[in-house]
């Protein structure tokens, strides 16, 4: 099945390591990604504040482009983009009038035929290949799998297997030899959409997440969303009290990339604010080159 | 700038039309508010919003930042026993308020959304540096550490020039069609401005 | 030759105001076949009735039409009158010129014309009427009660005390139902066992009650007054006649780690066990799934393993080779009293299509999150802790217990929209039991409404709040999780507007009441219907609450809807009274307006059999004098047939007809209108 | 005098007949053209009854029973509904205007609904005019209606 790739703004900007690690992993497992030509921003958390139509039309243009490119599904690794694309697809599917109006609004043919996939679904499908090509399994690294909100909610849009107890990320982590911990904040929102405009809230929410992960004995957080990552990595210093050691925050693609033996730099691990280098060194994985 | 009347009997019906959420199904159990991550910081919680829509008295929501702090995390919607979706209702109210009384939208929040969408309208994609600059200008929060640019730049996470898509004309048409007239069409939070 | 009498009533002014009754009588007098027609002011009054009786005798009438009110009002009255005059009652019909004529029209001329037309049509119908005999069905004066909870026990005892024979079938090894698991009972805090046990013993000792415990209903056939029931007596592996309930076997069994169902998993039992000390019958069941001997057999080991129980039994009652046996009982009536189950706090919901369980409450995987019945066992003096309320995880006395009401109930998203009715009350009870035992303990209740409509009920819940100091928080809880030693409860109080994050030592989920698994299969065997949730449908929600739509089958207790003990008992008694009423007659009398097959012409296509809503159509072999099979024809069982006429409208050759509504009668009516 | 149609109503004993009684008890005035024939259940109604009624001079027919889920006989009216789907074709075949046959569900508590049905049926049939039953041989000829 041909998979189109919708990186979204973050993966071209603050989440470059997500993009880099994803491309590296896709190459390693032989699942080439065809980036959608001329994609546009999905509107993220702002468009739907302005209006439902805009929040649907912006992502829909990308779905139309993907359709024109002849792919059957489109991978949106950013959880926010995924949520927006999936929601748009569903809203249009359920609203006959809107569907008929779309081609004119977009100025292009549109059949709403392309399925939208998130990074966890993509990696879960690839698990057999990943397991077969594993070169550097993590020896039981305790990890807190952090889903956040947009990957699983609402279940009607994301088709998550169980919106209160998803397990996809844990399965991927286990396949890489890591040992996911049992903790309680894995589905709590990090406050992503208020990151810029109300930093104080984000610090409060992030702190609770990090504290619970620490308490559960996690040595790293695993994420699949650029917003979660930028909040928990970039703002971690502000969230951490009384000189506790920082916790590196890894993209799930970075973890898989490491386990597949890809060089850390190619995975963008040197771009983190909380350097994963000490952890990797401790765990016998090659240290990331510094750019700090 | 008109305000919605104290009690608006038709509001529930209109929200139902717009969102498909029948707020009358809400029996005020508070499960949404119990799980809402922002409940600790807001005066009006999701169940209050549902109640106010049902009684048609949403005035208090207009004088308060509460609904602008909703993260759209959908925790409320996914646990509601009655299949209500408070997050969706909140969206619809924001849309309505922004249109009817843009002055009531809290400044940082409005500035953020406006800055963000401005970038998208101008380039087809968000350009973080431009967005942050615009946001700071709009809020006057010049010293506040919205995003620490040096750190990001050093890590190659921030580009200094926007990348513009070639189908920018299409995107602008979409904006115009969805936000009423071009420019300030979307009230306080819409994307405005010409290509600068 | 037909000799019809027509009696037109004025009903005072009711008919007389718009319909000219004497003109109607006048018009009918000249109608072919009518030999007598008269009008009178109040036909149903004594003089009116006398007038009809005398006219029948004087004119040797062969049929009567009373043009008056609706047949729903007085058909019975006039049929009795006619019968008293020696005429077959089914040769009397009523022409409705009041409800359907005088009361709905103002124009006197038009109304009178219409009244004449209506009366003529009925005269034509009566001409085609034939005398019918009331159907008499013999009644088997024994009743079957399915389910030995408090509802079934009450019904069985009332029936037996009323003189009827009773067969009581209970699927578990003892009767008692859920009430036997309760500690104390609202609204009076009586000890449940203390009031229940004597009744259970009474059942065991009653000469007119035959108890089949550890048994299930396999097949049901027949109809009201004449059911035949096949009962499967599941193999206990214990010979009932030899066993004296000494308990030596259960003591001897080395396999003692089986989760105890009666204790809701809070305790353990041996592989051969009695569910609780007061069990009736007090006789063990050997659990073949868990017994070492049978496990070995399943693994293919031929050597006889263990057998400690048999060694211990001085009576030689252990019978490893026992098999399920079947008995057939003839009964005249059936009472369904199979009770309820609780919505599971786990993920799986037996026979609960669309029910998903609560992920946000941890699907029952969080230690020290239990359901209401588990709490009952913890609070019960005969329970696994001897009545000490402690945490299952570590045996510590909980200092703060949080109760969640409406779990699974009133939740259309999770599939159960209804209110379970009893949980508000038992949570208040739990609060009291807890506070009576743990004086410094804190009880927090998350509720949406307190529904306590019953005698002394609201006072009871108020007591929990006012005297026992329970903190009632109005709101549903968003999430529960284990955090170290405590359970975190994330809730909200919609009255104070506070988000709450409580540390609880023990959390009790008041889960919804659902019908027993297997109820739909049982209902199908009995041809009764269930509602969408599986509760047995009553015949009428207000006026026939303990009857089902199938004649002779009744319902009692929590299998009909969530019910507490007082209601279950009331229903048990009411159902028993209904059955006794049925049994009080020598024979069942039924209106003869049932279908009858013309066997000579029936083609044996059995289309009628397919469409009959009551399964009243059977088959009969027709043989010639030499005993050779000539054909198979349809046959209607008059005891079952309700006279709906669907068969008649379906039969291609019109060889089955409902008496009193034959084609001939209806065509006569059509032609005259 | 204006055309006074004849309308025959086949109704079930439990729901519609009781509903019609209720209309009477409530003194709801209605068109006088309708004559009721009481049957145990709509399941008992044979399409031939309807044909017969037309043949005997009816200008319109009403068929009414319990609401589908409330049939006194559990499923009797379910069979009626199935039969009447076929019956529509039959009407076509004999050349009857299908508007002359009115199907409805009226429960025992719907006196008002019954009145509305009676009134609207009367109005419809008055508008359609008389039905000329051109029968020839008993029951075998075609019915032709002047509408
Ligand atoms: C936690 C809790 C606390 C409660 N506390 C109180 C209280 O304090 N006061 C009060 O009034 N009520 C209380 N109740 C309610 C009470 O339990 C019920 O009202 C009562 O048990 C209903 O009795 P029943 O006979 O209808 O059903 P059950 O008690 O459920 O009995 C049904 C019987 O039928 C048997 N059975 C089921 N299916 C079949 C079958 N197919 N064939 C043969 N047998 C079958 C079962 O094994 C069982 O023995 C409480 C309920 C709960 C859950
Ligand atoms: C406003 C209202 C609305 C209601 N709506 C509903 C509803 O929609 N559905 C529902 O299920 N219930 C409803 N009810 C409840 C319903 O009215 C009662 O459940 C029902 O009437 C109780 O019947 P009963 O026979 O016990 O008492 P009652 O109806 O009170 O009958 C008692 C009879 O006894 C007679 N009587 C009294 N004392 C003596 C005496 N000493 N000697 C001889 N005769 C005596 C009285 O005259 C009376 O005829 C409603 C009640 C009210 C007040
Ligand atoms: S959870 Fe649903 S029903 Fe409950 S208060 Fe919130 S919106 Fe209303
Ligand atoms: S979507 Fe908004 S209202 Fe709902 S839980 Fe999240 S923050 Fe609260
Ligand atoms: S028979 Fe009927 S119509 Fe006549 S007086 Fe009695 S109630 Fe009235
Ligand atoms: S030891 Fe024998 S007699 Fe005693 S309870 Fe067991 S089976 Fe019955
Ligand atoms: S055979 Fe052994 S294991 Fe089985 S019930 Fe008897 S004593 Fe227990
Ligand atoms: S009885 Fe009370 S706790 Fe139970 S479902 Fe009804 S309202 Fe909820
Ligand atoms: S439908 Fe008629 S012919 Fe066929 S079996 Fe029944 S009675 Fe006989
Ligand atoms: S009249 Fe109705 S109940 Fe009786 S046999 Fe015919 S179809 Fe069955």
Helix/strand/pairing class of chain D, anyone? alpha/beta
Measured by DSSP, the beta-strand proportion of chain D falls in 15-25%
Q: Radius of gyration of chain D in whole Å, from Cα?
A: 15 Å
Number of domains of chain C: 5
Account of the protein in words:
- The complex is a heterotetramer of chains A (292), B (196), C (673) and D (147).
- With 292 residues, chain A is of the alpha/beta class.
- Chain A folds into 2 domains: 3-119, Up-down Bundle (Glutathione S-transferase Yfyf (Class Pi), Chain A, domain 2), CATH 1.20.1050.140; 126-282, 3-Layer(aba) Sandwich (Rossmann fold), CATH 3.40.50.11810.
- In chain A, 48% of the residues lie in helices and 8% in strands.
- Chain A is globular and about 55 Å long.
- Chain A starts with a strand and ends in a 10-residue tail after the last helix.
- The relative contact order of chain A is 0.14.
- Chain C has 673 residues and is an alpha/beta fold.
- Chain C folds into 5 domains: 4-134, Rossmann fold (3-Layer(aba) Sandwich); 143-233 and 326-339 and 519-583, FAD/NAD(P)-binding domain, CATH 3.50.50; 235-323, no CATH class; 341-514, 3-Layer(bba) Sandwich (FAD/NAD(P)-binding domain); 595-672, Alpha-Beta Plaits, CATH 3.30.70.20.
- In chain C, 28% of the residues lie in helices and 24% in strands.
- Chain C is built from 19 helices and 34 strands.
- Chain D is of the alpha/beta class and 147 residues long.
- Chain D is 38% helix and 16% strand.
- In chain D, strand 3, helix 3 and strand 4 (101-105) form a beta-alpha-beta unit.
- Chain D starts with 6 loop residues before the first strand and ends in a 19-residue tail after the last helix.
- At the A-B interface, helix 3, helix 4 and helix 11 of A face helix 5, helix 6, helix 7, helix 8 and helix 9 of B.
- The structure holds flavin-adenine dinucleotide (2 copies) and iron/sulfur cluster (8 copies).
- One iron/sulfur cluster binds next to helix 9 of chain C.
């Amino acid at each position: 099945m041909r998979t189109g790739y919708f990186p979204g703004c973050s993966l071209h900007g603050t989440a470059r390591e997500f993009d880099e690690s994803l491309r590296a992993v896709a190459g390693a497992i032989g699942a080439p990604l065809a980036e959608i030509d001329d994609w546009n921003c999905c509107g993220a958390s702002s468009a739907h504040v302005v209006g439902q139509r805009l929040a649907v039309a912006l992502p829909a243009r990308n779905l139309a482009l993907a359709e024109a490119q002849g792919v059957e599904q489109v991978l949106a690794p950013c959880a926010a983009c995924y949520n927006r694309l999936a929601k748009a697809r569903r809203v249009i599917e359920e609203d006959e009038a809107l569907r008929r109006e779309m081609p004119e609004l977009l100025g292009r043919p549109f059949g709403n035929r392309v399925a939208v996939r998130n990074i966890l679904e993509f990696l879960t499908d690839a698990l057999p290949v990943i397991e077969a090509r594993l070169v550097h399994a993590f020896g039981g690294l305790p990890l807190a799998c952090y889903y956040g909100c947009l990957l699983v909610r609402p279940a009607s849009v994301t088709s998550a297997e169980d919106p209160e107890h998803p397990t996809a990320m844990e399965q991927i982590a286990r396949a890489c030899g890591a040992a996911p911990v049992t903790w309680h904040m894995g589905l709590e929102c990090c406050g992503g959409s208020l990151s810029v405009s109300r930093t104080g809230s984000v610090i409060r929410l992030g702190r609770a997440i990090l504290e619970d992960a620490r308490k559960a004995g996690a040595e790293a957080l695993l994420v699949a969303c650029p917003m979660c990552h930028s909040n928990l990595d970039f703002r971690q210093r502000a969230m951490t009290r009384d000189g506790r050691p920082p916790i590196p925050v890894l993209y799930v693609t970075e973890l898989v990339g490491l386990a597949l033996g890809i060089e850390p730099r190619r995975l963008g691990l040197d771009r983190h604010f909380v350097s994963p280098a000490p952890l990797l060194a401790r765990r016998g994985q090659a240290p990331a080159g510094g750019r700090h | 700038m008109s305000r919605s009347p104290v009690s608006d009997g038709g509001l529930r019906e209109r929200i139902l039309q717009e969102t498909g959420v029948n707020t009358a199904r809400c029996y005020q159990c508070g499960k949404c508010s119990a799980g809402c991550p922002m409940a600790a910081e807001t005066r009006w919680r999701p169940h209050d919003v549902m109640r106010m829509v049902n009684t048609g008295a949403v005035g208090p929501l207009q004088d308060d930042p509460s609904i602008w702090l909703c993260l759209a995390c959908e925790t409320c919607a996914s646990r509601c026993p009655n299949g209500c979706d408070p997050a969706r209702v909140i969206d619809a109210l924001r849309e309505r308020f922004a249109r009817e009384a843009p002055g009531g939208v809290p400044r940082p929040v409005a500035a953020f959304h406006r800055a963000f969408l401005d970038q998208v309208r101008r380039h087809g994609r968000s350009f973080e540096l431009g967005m942050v600059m615009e946001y700071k200008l709009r809020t006057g929060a010049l010293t506040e550490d919205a995003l620490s640019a040096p750190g990001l730049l050093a890590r190659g996470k921030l580009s200094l020039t926007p990348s513009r898509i070639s189908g920018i004309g299409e995107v602008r048409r979409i904006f115009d069609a969805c936000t009423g007239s071009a420019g300030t069409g979307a009230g306080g939070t819409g994307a405005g401005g010409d290509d600068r | 030759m037909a000799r019809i009498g027509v009696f037109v009533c004025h009903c005072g002014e009711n008919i007389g105001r718009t319909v000219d009754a004497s003109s109607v009588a006048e018009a009918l007098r000249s109608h072919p076949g009518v030999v007598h027609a008269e009008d009178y002011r109040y036909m149903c009054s004594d003089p009116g009735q006398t007038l009809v009786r005398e006219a029948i005798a004087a004119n040797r009438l062969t049929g009567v039409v009373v043009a008056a009110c609706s047949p729903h009002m007085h058909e019975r009255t006039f049929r009795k009158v006619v019968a008293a005059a020696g005429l077959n009652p089914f040769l009397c019909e009523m022409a409705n010129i009041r409800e359907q004529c005088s009361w709905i029209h103002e124009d006197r001329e038009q109304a009178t014309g219409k009244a004449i037309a209506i009366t003529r049509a009925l005269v034509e119908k009566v001409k085609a009427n034939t005398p019918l005999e009331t159907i008499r069905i013999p009644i088997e004066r024994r009743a079957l009660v399915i389910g030995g909870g408090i509802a079934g026990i009450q019904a069985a005892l009332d029936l037996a005390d009323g003189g009827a024979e009773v067969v009581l079938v209970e699927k578990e090894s003892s009767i008692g139902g859920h009430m036997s698991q309760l500690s104390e009972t609202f609204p009076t805090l009586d000890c449940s066992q203390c009031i229940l046990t004597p009744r259970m013993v009474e059942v065991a000792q009653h000469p007119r009650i035959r108890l089949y415990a550890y048994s299930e209903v396999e097949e049901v056939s027949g109809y009201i007054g004449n059911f035949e029931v096949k009962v499967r007596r599941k193999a206990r592996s214990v010979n009932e006649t030899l066993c004296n309930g000494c308990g030596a076997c259960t003591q001897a069994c080395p396999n003692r780690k089986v989760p105890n169902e009666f204790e809701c998993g809070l305790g353990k039992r041996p592989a051969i066990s009695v569910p609780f000390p007061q069990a009736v019958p007090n006789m063990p069941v050997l659990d073949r799934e868990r017994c070492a001997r049978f496990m070995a057999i399943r693994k293919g080991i031929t050597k006889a393993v263990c057998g400690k129980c048999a060694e211990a039994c001085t009576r030689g009652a252990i019978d490893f080779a026992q098999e399920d046996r079947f008995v057939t009982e003839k009964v005249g009536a059936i009472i369904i009293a199979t009770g309820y189950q609780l919505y599971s706090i786990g993920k799986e919901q037996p026979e609960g299509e669309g029910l998903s369980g609560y992920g946000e409450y941890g699907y029952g995987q969080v230690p020290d999150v239990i359901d209401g019945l588990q709490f009952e066992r913890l609070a019960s003096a005969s329970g696994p802790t001897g009545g000490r309320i402690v945490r299952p995880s570590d045996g510590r006395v909980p200092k703060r217990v949080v109760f969640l009401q409406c779990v699974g109930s009133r939740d259309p998203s999770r599939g159960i929209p209804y209110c379970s009715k009893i949980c508000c009350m038992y949570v208040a009870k739990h609060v009291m039991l807890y506070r009576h035992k743990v004086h410094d303990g804190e009880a927090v209740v998350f509720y949406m409404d307190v529904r306590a409509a019953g005698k002394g009920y609201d006072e009871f819940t108020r007591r929990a709040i006012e005297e026992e100091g329970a903190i009632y928080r109005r709101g549903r809880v968003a999430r529960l999780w284990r955090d170290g030693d405590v359970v975190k409860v994330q809730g909200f109080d919609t009255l104070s507007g506070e988000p709450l994050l409580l540390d609880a030592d023990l959390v009790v989920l008041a889960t919804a009441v659902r019908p027993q698994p297997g109820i739909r299969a049982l209902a199908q065997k009995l041809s009764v219907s269930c509602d969408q949730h599986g509760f047995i449908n009553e015949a009428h929600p207000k006026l026939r609450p303990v009857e089902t739509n199938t004649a002779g089958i009744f319902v009692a207790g929590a299998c009909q809807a969530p019910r507490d003990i007082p209601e279950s008992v009331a229903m048990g008694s009411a159902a028993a009274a209904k059955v006794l009423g049925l049994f009080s007659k020598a024979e069942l009398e039924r209106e003869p307006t049932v279908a009858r097959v013309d066997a000579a012409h029936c083609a044996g296509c059995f289309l009628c059999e397919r469409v009959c809503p009551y399964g009243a159509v059977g088959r009969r072999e027709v043989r010639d004098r030499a005993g050779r099979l000539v054909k198979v024809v349809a046959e209607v069982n008059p005891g079952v047939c309700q006279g709906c006429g669907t068969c008649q409208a379906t039969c291609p050759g019109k060889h089955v007809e409902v008496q009193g509504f034959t084609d001939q009668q209806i065509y006569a009516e059509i032609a005259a209108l | 005098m204006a055309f006074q149609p004849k309308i025959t109503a086949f109704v079930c004993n439990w729901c519609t007949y009781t509903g019609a009684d209720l209309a009477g008890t409530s003194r709801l005035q209605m068109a006088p053209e309708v004559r009721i024939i009481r049957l145990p259940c709509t399941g008992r109604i044979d399409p031939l009854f309807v044909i017969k009624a037309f043949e005997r001079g009816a200008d319109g027919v009403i068929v009414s029973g319990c609401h589908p889920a409330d049939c006194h006989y559990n499923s009797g009216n379910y069979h009626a509904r199935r039969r009447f789907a076929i019956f529509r074709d039959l009407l076509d075949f004999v050349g009857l205007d299908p508007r002359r046959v009115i199907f409805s569900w009226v429960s025992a508590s719907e006196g008002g609904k019954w009145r509305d049905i009676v009134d609207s049926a009367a109005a419809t049939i008055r508008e359609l005019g008389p039905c000329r039953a051109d029968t020839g041989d008993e029951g075998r000829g075609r019915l032709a209606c002047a509408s």
